[in-house]
């Protein structure tokens, strides 16, 4: 590693990436281990205000994590009261509902909420600061492993030695690549158009997922805005070329395409957010750990947003890694040692691969024109809809409450 250090520092854990995963992990570690355990987060994005215009579905388990680390109380969230699933062609006048989820996952606890990404990121950054996490507005540029630490060079020229480096630097993780960890996957040749619409009528907390042949069109309820009124977030999947054509349309034509898919249930609609396009892919890291390195969030895995689970999976990584590190350090162990990191990898990798396969299968089953597959899935959805016990199991699974759930996702402090 070439370096001309302006100043060398030493920390217990250095997190590369201040997205949801990186910041939540840093906060959880400080809360679990106290001020004697030093944690830094490095990300060039820390130099500017959060500008992610997206919204995310946060399932019950992930909400418990945010509540336990003390950020949920700082943001506005819209509970999802019920969800309907339809399966039709764009030209169909009526879209029959095949599956409906409603009710709570536990009494008084909705199975998911919708949040806006930017305020949640801002609340996480503020909480991290309050907990004494050192926030550094620079990228992880390079690093080298030595037997007892990892020497990291940041893009501002400073160096930092850590007992553990965590890659939380997103889907195109440079840290993962620099560590030589391959990731397996492919592009879906689909892209998601994301925007926000205001509408005349109240959504009453209903989320809608319309399975159209090009891919799912989701209408996700947002908190009412004082000036814009009732709003929903749109995640609209199309073939990549078609998505590029649609987002480039003049306003009136874009509006017409949107309205064809959105329908009339909520009255007149108006676009009130920027249009953005996100190419979709599936990828899973071949390993989630290396010497003194752990991957979390999109740096470890990227899945199709068909079930709104990407971030929720990343938060499961965070909860598992935080628990493993806190347990180890309390026993006097080195948080970057192979035994500690292997426990994390065993906990998370199988679950991640299973979720990747499930979301991929759902996308293949629904995003196509085949009448045979259409019949199969509609019979399947209809069956699930008629079996309350199976439906409840699906809801608990989607809410992240099935399997070996880490403490933070159960709402327990570390
Ligand atoms: C259209 C769409 C809709 C989605 N909807 C949902 C949903 O409803 N629910 C859900 O659970 N998930 C959803 N997801 C997935 C979710 O958005 C991601 O899983 C989540 O944002 C990943 O968070 P992260 O913290 O791992 O990475 P990111 O949010 O990508 O953060 C990575 C950070 O690392 C920084 N960085 C990059 N390189 C470096 C470096 N070298 N050094 C330091 N820092 C670096 C970046 O600046 C960035 O701040 C959706 C995804 C898409 C595309």
Key attributes of the depicted protein:
binds flavin-adenine dinucleotide, 8-stranded mixed β-sheet, 11 helices, D-Amino Acid Oxidase, Chain A, domain 2, FAD/NAD(P)-binding domain, single chain, 2 domains, 414 residues, disordered N terminus, 9-stranded mixed β-sheet, alpha+beta
Can you walk me through this structure?
The structure is a single chain. By secondary structure, the chain is of the alpha+beta class. The chain has two domains: 8-74 and 115-185 and 282-367 and 403-410, 3-Layer(bba) Sandwich (FAD/NAD(P)-binding domain), CATH 3.50.50; 78-112 and 188-280, D-Amino Acid Oxidase, Chain A, domain 2 (2-Layer Sandwich). The protein has helices at 20-33, 60-68, 117-130, 174-178, 240-247, 251-262, 310-330, 338-366, 371-386, 388-398, 407-410, and strands at residues 8-16, 39-42, 55-59, 78-79, 82-87, 97-102, 104-106, 109-110, 112-116, 134-136, 140-146, 149-154, 159-167, 183-199, 206-212, 215-225, 229-239, 269-271, 276-285, 289-290, 293-295, 301-302. The strands form four sheets. Strands 5, 6, 14, 15, 16, 17, 18, 19 and 22 form a nine-stranded mixed β-sheet that branches. Strands 1, 2, 10, 11, 12, 13, 20 and 21 form an eight-stranded mixed β-sheet that branches. A three-stranded antiparallel β-sheet has the order 3-9-4. The longest helix is centred in the last third of the chain and has 29 residues, at 338-366. The radius of gyration is 22 Å and the shape is globular. It starts with 7 loop residues before the first strand and ends with a helix. Mean pLDDT is 90; it is low at 2-7. Bound molecules: flavin-adenine dinucleotide.
């Amino acid at each position: 590693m070439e370096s001309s250090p302006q100043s060398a520092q030493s920390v217990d854990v250095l997190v590369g990436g201040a997205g949801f995963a990186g910041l939540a992990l840093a906060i959880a570690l400080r809360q679990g281990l106290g001020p004697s355990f030093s944690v830094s987060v490095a990300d060039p994005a820390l130099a500017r205000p959060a500008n992610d215009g997206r919204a995310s579905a946060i399932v019950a388990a992930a909400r418990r994590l945010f509540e336990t680390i003390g950020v949920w109380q700082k943001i506005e969230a819209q509970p999802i009261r019920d969800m309907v699933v339809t399966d039709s062609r764009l030209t169909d006048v009526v879209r029959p509902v095949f599956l409906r989820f409603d009710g709570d996952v536990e009494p008084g606890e909705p199975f998911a909420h919708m949040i806006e990404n930017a305020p949640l990121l801002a609340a996480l950054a503020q909480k991290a600061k309050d907990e004494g996490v050192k926030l550094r507005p620079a990228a992880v540029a390079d690093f080298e492993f030595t037997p007892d630490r990892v020497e990291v060079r940041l893009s501002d020229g400073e160096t930092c030695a850590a007992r553990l480096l965590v890659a939380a630097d997103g889907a195109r993780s440079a840290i993962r690549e620099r560590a030589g960890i391959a990731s397996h996957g492919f592009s879906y040749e689909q892209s998601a158009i994301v925007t926000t619409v205001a509408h005349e009528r109240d959504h009453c907390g209903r989320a809608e997922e319309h399975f159209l042949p090009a891919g799912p069109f989701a209408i996700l309820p947002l908190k009412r805005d004082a000036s814009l009124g009732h709003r929903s977030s749109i995640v609209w999947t199309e073939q990549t070329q078609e998505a590029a054509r649609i987002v480039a349309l003049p306003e009136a034509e874009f509006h017409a395409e949107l309205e064809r898919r959105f329908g009339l249930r909520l009255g007149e609609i108006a676009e009130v957010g920027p249009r953005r396009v996100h190419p979709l892919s599936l990828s899973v890291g071949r390993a989630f750990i290396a010497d003194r390195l752990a991957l979390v969030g999109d740096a470890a895995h990227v899945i199709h947003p068909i079930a709104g689970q990407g971030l929720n999976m990343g938060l499961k990584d965070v909860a598992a890694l935080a628990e493993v590190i806190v347990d180890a350090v309390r026993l006097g162990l080195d948080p970057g040692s192979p035994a500690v990191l292997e426990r994390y990898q065993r906990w998370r990798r199988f679950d991640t691969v299973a979720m990747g396969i499930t979301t991929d299968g759902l996308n293949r089953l629904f995003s196509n024109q085949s009448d045979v597959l259409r019949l199969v899935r509609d019979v399947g959805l209809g069956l699930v809809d008629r079996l309350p016990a199976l439906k409840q199991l699906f809801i608990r699974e989607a809410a992240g409450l099935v399997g070996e759930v880490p403490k933070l996702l159960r709402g327990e402090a570390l």
